[in-house]
Design brief:
single chain, mainly alpha
């Protein structure tokens, strides 16, 4: 498998997960509070398998940084699920690309990477397209959609985690990264489980949902882990900047899935807006991809 196929495959998987998560939260697991705990359970199991397969690596400082990255990723998941509960999956997928802006700023502050004019143009393109995409018309006035701020916080957390991984990933095996980052995600799950409302939401969702729904939830979380694993594998095989830039194709997958799922399963997935709306989304997705590519 080439690094290009890994990068694009990761985008395709993540876009599908966005739609599945939106369906699960809107139809079955009422509210987003319980979802991060399902993520923690799935990731903990997979991380232990990866840890054993890697030969029980003792990584010291690198392991600590990767664990911290996973913990921050769990904080990102909290805000991601809040965003997907109130926003269109295609728009949320497009807003993911704002993490390139935060990564650029954090890299300049903590890694002393150069901010070229090309990257600044990419910064403006990404932020501008994301804001236009998230605008909603309410009584003749435009305002930012409800998903804008939660996904912005999630993007910042994802960018912070990427900086930690970049610091720790030199001469570290793929399985070790998966294991230690997964342990951090699970630790984040333990931290949020200390909240009474979160535990109540988890117990209620588990009790009230049938086995089929629970299986769907775990399948979605497993797919999410697959998307992350493909991205990490792509980074390990190819240039990290180009692999990250190829993430700009995710909005195109999300738009396509919206129509595909609505056609195949109209009773489960609402039909997305067409006509000028889809043209607007495609045009802004192109702008986003161009901005991400400039920030690579």
């Amino acid at each position: 498998m080439t690094w290009i196929s890994c990068a694009i495959g990761s985008c395709a998987v993540y876009a599908a997960v966005n739609h599945l998560d939106a369906h699960i939260i809107s139809r079955h697991v009422k509210g987003p509070a319980a979802m991060p705990l399902y993520t923690a359970i799935v990731v903990l199991v997979i991380s232990f398998v990866a840890f054993l397969a890697a030969g029980l690596p003792d990584m010291g400082r690198e392991g600590g940084l990767l664990t911290a990255a996973g913990f921050v990723m769990m904080m990102a998941n909290i805000f991601y699920f809040r965003a997907i509960a109130v926003g269109d999956p295609a728009i949320v997928a497009a807003m993911f690309q704002v993490k390139a802006v935060f990564t650029l700023v954090l890299s300049r502050l903590f890694l002393d990477e150069r901010l070229s004019a090309e990257r600044l143009v990419g910064f403006v393109l990404i932020l501008g397209a994301a804001i236009v995409l998230s605008l909603e018309s309410v009584e003749g006035r435009f305002r930012l959609g409800k998903a804008f701020w939660p996904i912005l916080v999630a993007d910042f957390c994802w960018a912070t985690a990427a900086i930690f991984v970049k610091h720790a990933s030199t001469n570290v095996t793929f399985l070790s990264i998966v294991a230690y980052e997964g342990f951090g995600l699970a630790l984040g799950g333990v931290a949020i489980a200390l909240s009474g409302p979160v535990r109540h939401a988890f117990r209620t969702s588990y009790r009230d949902s049938g086995r089929g729904v629970i299986a769907l939830v775990f399948a979605s979380e497993g797919l999410g882990f697959l998307g992350k694993a493909l991205f990490l594998l792509g980074v390990s095989l190819g240039p990290v900047t180009i692999v990250s830039a190829l993430g700009g194709v995710q909005p195109f997958f999300s738009i396509a899935y919206g129509y595909l799922f609505a056609f195949l399963l109209p009773q489960l997935f609402p039909r997305p807006p067409g006509g000028v709306h889809v043209l607007k989304r495609l045009a802004l997705a192109v702008v986003l991809m161009g901005g991400v590519w400039l920030c690579r």
